[in-house]
Amino acid sequence: MKKTIISSLLAVAALAPVASFAADGTINFTGTVTDQTCTITGDNGTNYTVNLPKVGASSLASAGNKAGATPFSIKLSNCSTSATGARANFEIGANVDTSSGYLKNTSTGSTAATNVQIGLAAQDGTEIKLNATQPTTFFPITNKAANLTYLAQYVANGGAAGAGAVTTNVQYTIVYQ
């Protein structure tokens, strides 16, 4: 009897219509992979280290205060002749605070600064929020080379900063024009 009921249920399930979902629209994606490239000349291959200055916690006394703006450049050379411009796209990764758009302080333990993140900015000081659309301004490639100059700075986030170590990193991709 049990075998008959199970067989009957399986037969009914096999004949049941498959659930279907109505589509409301289509999103098309287009793009281009290019052979336009440059050589990235960093401190260590394609990697860079940006040493921010020591700043007093008093300069970061309130949420949103910024201090220690430090320029850094991504240096490009040996660019293909078809490349006319380049910019960095800073990737959203584990170190990005998606609510603030800044880089989280990854220092840990009792020596880590509190309520401090690292913010990035264009060379003119315009903030680059890593949780939003990034600036699309391209740096010109001249004589097969370019310096993509940005700023990094401390940002008080969540209240007054507490003294201590600040460490973080972000990955980037070079986008060509």
Characterize the structure shown.
Helix content is 8%, strand content 27%. The protein is globular. The termini are far apart. Mean pLDDT is 88; it is low at 4-10. The chain is mostly beta strands and 177 residues long. It has 1 helix and 8 strands. The protein has one domain: Sandwich (Immunoglobulin-like), CATH 2.60.40. A hairpin with a 4-residue loop joins strand 4 and strand 5 (127-128).
How do the SSEs run, as a string of H and E? HEEEEEEEE
- Total number of distinct structural domains: 1
| Alpha carbon gyration radius | 25 Å
Indicate the structural class.
mainly beta
- Give helix % range: under 10%
* N- and C-termini, Cα separation: 72 Å
**Helix count?**
1
Biggest β-sheet: strands ordered side by side in the sheet: 1-2-7-4-5
Q: Would you tell me the overall average pLDDT? A: 88
- Proportion of residues in β-strands: 25-35%
CATH architecture name: Sandwich
What's the CATH H-level homologous superfamily? Fimbrial-type adhesion domain
CATH topology: Immunoglobulin-like
Main beta sheet strand tally, sense and closure: 5 strands, antiparallel
Which blocks of ≥5 consecutive residues have pLDDT under 50?
4-10
Q: In total, how many beta strands?
A: 8
**General form:** globular
Q: Which class in CATH terms?
A: Mainly Beta
